[in-house]
Write a structure and sequence with these properties.
The protein is α+β, with helices and mostly antiparallel strands. The chain is 30% helix and 24% strand. The chain contains three helices and four strands, in the order H-E-H-E-E-H-E. The protein has helices spanning 3-9, 30-38, 60-70; strands at 18-24, 43-46, 51-56, 78-82. A hairpin with a 4-residue loop joins strand 2 (43-46) and strand 3. The longest helix has 11 residues, at 60-70. The two termini are 22 Å apart.
Amino acid sequence: MSLKDVSSKFNLSKNFGYDYLIEFKDSRKLSDLYSILKSISTYVIPYGTRGYRVTSKKSKDYIIEYIYKNTDLERNDYTVLSTIEFNSLRI
């Protein structure tokens, strides 16, 4: 079976993306942010007590702006880190 045949049967690319860690200064706001992050991500799980681990095809800058525009948080209320910055890519 060729690679093209395999990819037509399994559309794995829809789940690929970049891995991000998003940490918030105020953990009380986490529950409100899950649905916002889920709308731009393929994978969202809690990460520690103040953040989420997210897989998304969106860029780091896009995620920072998206959170800012869709919440009442200021940009200094959260940090978005790309795991590529730690020499890792989630595919």
